[in-house]
Amino acid sequence: MADFLTIFNKLSELTKSAEDDLHYCLQNKSVNKGDYLLRRREVCKKLYFIEEGLTKTFFSNEEKEFIMQFFAEHALFTVVDSFVSQTPSTYEIMALENTTVTYITWKDLQILCKKHHCIEAAFSKLLSIATINMMKRISEMLEESATERYNHFLDDNGKLLQRISLGDLSNYLGITQGSLSRIRANK
Amino acid sequence: MADFLTIFNKLSELTKSAEDDLHYCLQNKSVNKGDYLLRRREVCKKLYFIEEGLTKTFFSNEEKEFIMQFFAEHALFTVVDSFVSQTPSTYEIMALENTTVTYITWKDLQILCKKHHCIEAAFSKLLSIATINMMKRISEMLEESATERYNHFLDDNGKLLQRISLGDLSNYLGITQGSLSRIRANK
DNA sequence: AGTAAGTTTTATCAATTGTAAAAAACATGA
DNA sequence: TCATGTTTTTTACAATTGATAAAACTTACT
Hints:
Two copies of one chain form a homodimer.
Chain A: H1 2-11, H2 16-25, E1 27-31, E2 36-38, E3 46-52, E4 54-60, E5 65-72, E6 76-77, H3 80-85, E7 92-95, E8 99-105, H4 106-115, H5 117-143, H6 146-157, H7 166-173, H8 177-185
Antiparallel strand pairs in A: 1-8, 2-7, 3-6, 3-8, 4-5, 4-7
Helix pairs in contact in A: 1-5, 2-4, 4-5, 7-8
Chain A binds a DNA duplex through helix 8.
């Protein structure tokens, strides 16, 4: 709970009053491994902070699943398009471990943004970070081979490797599980 | 010039006073085909609106070039990471046609954001749209084959096809020019 | 230990994409 | 029109990745 405020404070310095109001709006939730924080076609009403655990944000077609992002402890995230426009989501969020989150609802955040400029600034900053992360991902997908993307993932998220199934990792990298196994074998 | 304001107004309704201030800050520039609006390692100091023409935002390594986005007339854009943090850019912007832009500098935008909440809101909205676009692109790269991505590009940007070289298009799709030619031939 | 369920690896073959170089088509200016 | 430079297509071959299914390995539970 305190950490949510810490992270928000890093995005944009909060006034004491804003921090108090924000603190007051925060809620907690625990879900088990395999549970969903958001289902397809639901409106994403929450901005999440992970206290503990691990989630994946993904979408799927009839045959396959595609993973946009993993979020582990201390990550602050939401499904941007559904959240900002309060429209049904094409993405889902599932807990990959027993997970505890702190969250603020869209409604509450709206109110706080109106009231406290520093909170609005923090959220705006979060959006710009999201864009930058997405651009980085696209760059890697354009420039790197599957092997390079795998190694890059290890460099950036080495610690997560033990916690993510290789099936999920392959769905994140955009290759089949067979291909990922081949890549891992060639070492 | 008027169009820049129109687009900004669509992002967030501007007060008369904000609109006047914004109008006052806008500047124009024309560049020839092949000219750069931004070079690598430069700080991107401008938020651009294309009055007329076409640009590509890209990066390159020793051998190849990779295109993040094309922007044609009435597009409002910048290089997000360099612009928001005012740090050197890894991306470059080049005009693919003789191009006229209207722009506002980061400095002026900063000032206006402080002064007019509606302008800050508009820029924030622009960031959220950028994130959403990037997520859409990643989704397509994960889910679709090169052939599907090409067809998808035609559906979304059919009119641009005549204006973009196939070399550039292949660098956008993340395939070689040879592959793209093959895809186009199979019809 | 033994079983069942889930995960990861391996193997085979097919399809896609990359590489490199040549040929063809197109555009431009002398 | 010719000549030149650029862009696009084509080709043959190599490398990578996909699809599928079976085998090996883990894990959790009884």
